Predict the 3D structure of the following.
Amino acid sequence: MSTTLGKNIKAFRKNKGFTQEELADLLNITPQAVSKWESESSLPDVSMLIPLAQVLGVTTDALLGYDSISETEEITSRIKDTVERMSHNSERAQRTLEICEYLSTETNLNPGNFEIIKDYVQETANLSMYEDPVLEGYFQDQPDRIQKIYKDCIRKGAYLISHCSDRELVDKTHYAMAWIYIHLKDFDKAKDHINVLPSLSTGSIRENIDMERVFFESGFDKVKGFDNMKGKIEENSRLLFMLTAAMLNTISQNFGWYGEKEEAYEACDWCESIIKAYATKKEYIDINKYLRVRRSVAFFRMVAAKRAGDGEYAEKLYTKFAEEIKAEDLTEEEKARIMDMIHSDIAYYSRYTGDQENKDEG
């Protein structure tokens, strides 16, 4: 967290779970004023500092950045940087285990750092996938080591859920905890976490009604930034893309691994058509998520071909994908990244599609 006032206001507001509008209402000011404070295009009057600190539940020293706030940010940044470096080491499953053990230690040392606890739970969810004998089946020879992480992570995740006021962190932790319990085959506890997550089933979602609120408050294009309908549409379109991409990844993955050949091709083609449609409006997508799901759909179509015994067609699919990426409106760095990802998948999952066996025989 920065020691600058605007960034501290934003961080404390999010930690309390307030929107800019809710904070403005509590202070009897306009949401635009809060937005300007946080962007530091203007600063609150000195007379506002005490009521602002009271509403946010912090001291004025904390608000102004005179206590340990910057230290907390530095710790979080250091831990995340270390995890990023570790993510490039060794084999996938092994490095995930090493990251989990590292985060276990760091969360012991920093028990109030909910951001790092959330990361720990998410990494443990990844670990549970690798450990699941139905999927990867790693670590079967070291159950005590794995169970120690599960027990520690579940306890810390429950603590975050009970004590953290940041709804986004809580939701992400519930989501990751559900995955852990799914892989542990404790489906009742998985459902407990799933059932408290936000749902699209009613259609009454916060982002949709919030776009309408902004329209009636600020108009379609009257105010620059995100305090207008156009800005909210762009912001929420990216959120919609993230959700859609996650679902399409799951659809193509399951059809690729378990569907019949033709239905798998059809499902992957459908997923790819949606992803490509999103990509025509680059400002509406998260480019990193786009690269990941674009490569996933292509890869799982290749998996379907390999499972059907048609290695030649799988190679044609790879060539076609490589040519499309080469011609796509992406930077050279993005093109290299997406090809690196699909090469990594091909190398890692070859043992499941027969390539490794063929190589061993050769």
Q: What stands out?
A: The longest helix spans residues 229-258. The chain has three domains: 5-64, 69-194, 216-361. The CA atoms of residues 257 and 304 lie 6 Å apart.
